[in-house]
Amino acid sequence: MKGSITTFGMPTEIISGPGAHNRIPEFLVPGKNTLLVTDKGLADSDIVLKVTSVLNGAGFPVKVASDITPNPDEETVNRLTAYLKENSIFQVVALGGGSPLDAAKAACAMVTNEGPLEDYQWNNKPFTKPPLLLIAVPTTAGTGSEVTGVAVITSRNAKKGIKKREIFPEIAVIDPELMVSLPGFLTATTGMDALTHAVEAYVGKNTHPITDSLAVSAIRLIGGNLRKVVENGSDLQARENMAMASTLAGIAMDQAGLGIVHSLSGPVCSFMHLAHGLANAVLLPFGMEYNLSARYKRFAVIAELLGGDTGGMKEEDAAKLSLKLVHRLLDDIGLSGELEKVRQAFKERKDLHVFGESAADMFLIRNNPRPASAEECTELFSIIAGG
Ligand code: NAD
């Protein structure tokens, strides 16, 4: 314990387990207009069909809005907000990965509070009225968005989170049955996103006994289950374990903060249009290596949690083992080739210093255990390029 006052607050009620989506109607208000928000990729899927059938069967004739772009931008949120107002929607079920969940989180708050969105996003204006009732149902494992007080929305050519208590969904329904259709590649990248959340929460400056225990459980679950779900997406037990890991990691990072990996991935996603999970996946071992000397003990624990045998090793060597294990994991889940592609793309760019400046500008970097200037971030991008 560091002897200072810390806080932990997570208001979302969590309902989880195989078939949990059948319980969504219990949390909706009868007789009120209900909207299901999802994305185009899922609009015609069995997942949407399953959830709409449950809702319709329980007397909630639900409309579906699927006009949500990946990495949702301001326009998407404004369009959804207008739709919610025009159709007098009282409650929302957000179904999908982090993109539809974040768009719904922001729009539900914007319906009841005066705009524009950028005031809340860039000027930290407080929400004065509670948002619409929101039930978040993740279909990736993942971002953990169902349990975070953040909605990440792209505007001014940057991904900028709106972080406020009102943004937490009221209910999170976590059902691994809704995740079995996630293809292997997306299973791998979103799973690495969850691992990045847990690692950054565990080694950051703002660690806390509660977030530590969540992060430790998440890392152990991911170490034991990510390979299994990539190899066999129908392994429901492994899907359930990954779903829980993602939620635990989401709570941990929301409360304890992130660090250099997410700071580096900001410009990589914005300028190279790489998916959030993929960017984090390939940058994670480099961010870990940068931080190693600041947190030997914790990286040695991470090595053990990922299944490494650290018995008899010096702490520094055990910490280094965690890097090897993450590289091995990337290899086993088929992402090493993606790292090579990113290396190649970095090699061809003349503007890595702009990436470095942008990374050092991210507020997330303030929680990193080792300070990182624009020059140091640029150097890190060059190291990756030089591979
Ligand atoms: P995503 O929501 O963009 O979805 C990626 C793709 O997966 C889409 O094409 C979608 O249709 C498909 N998909 C989702 N579930 C599926 C399933 N079960 N079967 C088949 N296909 C499925 O991806 P994501 O990685 O979940 O979310 C990324 C977004 O989340 C980014 O915008 C990121 O910034 C944000 N994010 C938010 C938080 C937060 O706390 N709010 C945290 C981390 C990331």
**How are the strands of the largest sheet arranged?**
1-8-5-4-2-3
Radius of gyration equals 20 Å
> Which hetero compounds are present in the coordinates?
nicotinamide-adenine-dinucleotide
Number of strands: 8
User: Can you tell me the CATH superfamily of the largest domain?
Assistant: Dehydroquinate synthase-like - alpha domain
Per CATH, what is the topology of the largest domain? Dehydroquinate synthase-like, alpha domain
Q: For this entry, what is the oligomeric state of its chains? A: single chain
Termini separation comes to 38 Å
Classification by helices and strands:
alpha/beta
Q: What overall form do the CA principal axes indicate?
A: globular
Low-pLDDT ranges: none
Rounded mean pLDDT is 96
Largest sheet: number of strands, sense, barrel closure: 6 strands, parallel
- CATH classification class of the largest domain: Mainly Alpha
What CATH architecture of the largest domain do you see? Up-down Bundle
Give a brief outline of the structure.
This protein has two domains: 166 residues, Rossmann fold (3-Layer(aba) Sandwich); 203 residues, Dehydroquinate synthase-like - alpha domain (Dehydroquinate synthase-like, alpha domain), CATH 1.20.1090.10.
Care to describe what's here?
The protein is an alpha/beta fold and 387 residues long. It has two domains: 13-178, 3-Layer(aba) Sandwich (Rossmann fold); 184-386, Up-down Bundle (Dehydroquinate synthase-like, alpha domain), CATH 1.20.1090.10. Helix content is 53%, strand content 10%. Strands 1-8-5-4-2-3 form a six-stranded parallel sheet, covered by helices on one side. A two-stranded antiparallel sheet has the order 6-7. Strand 6 (150-155) and strand 7 form a beta hairpin. Helix 6 packs parallel to helix 10, helix 7 packs antiparallel against helix 8 and helix 11 packs across helix 12 (315-332). It is globular. Nicotinamide-adenine-dinucleotide binds next to helix 1, helix 4, strand 6, helix 6 and helix 10.
